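Students often ask why we bother encoding 3D structure as a string. The short answer is that it lets us treat folding as translation between two languages. Here is a chain of 173 residues written in the first language.
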Amino acid sequence: MRLLHYIEQGGPIMYILLFLNVVGFALMIYKFYILSNEKNKVEERAENLRENLSQKIGTTTDPNIVIEMSNQEISTSMKQMEKGLNTIKIIASISPLLGLLGTVIGVLIAFQVMSRTGLNNPEHFAQGISMALITTVGGLIVAIPHYIGHNYMLGMLDSLENRLEKSLLAKIL
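And here it is in the second language, the structure alphabet:
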């Protein structure tokens, strides 16, 4: 298979990128599933938050205190749903850097071969350059979908938070 050939040519950096890609996509699929389910449970979650909030507020009728407390409850609830998104962001951030590391290693190998053998055998020189280019491409292939997925899920979280806030404030005020 051609893909395995490219991974082998890219060396150990490509195996690291492959591992990060698998972990990142598994996490994105899981988070997408969780956030999609949460989108359908906004009213139920708002009711649970309202019950928790009513116990904490007690007899306070000051709307500023009620709004501040509700924002704290929503923030706590949203932090639980955000777990895992930072890992996706880290994968999106370090993948191009790993690709760049592979590029530098590949060019270094190419120059070492060139210094030992000269340009008599361009095949050995080309292997280092090939490794450099493959790892660069691999890093970008991993980073781009993770970056898009991270931003999309942040949008889903923002939308969910807005709906939750509206629903909760409508029940409280």
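Translate back mentally: The mean pLDDT is 87. Keep this in mind for the problem set.
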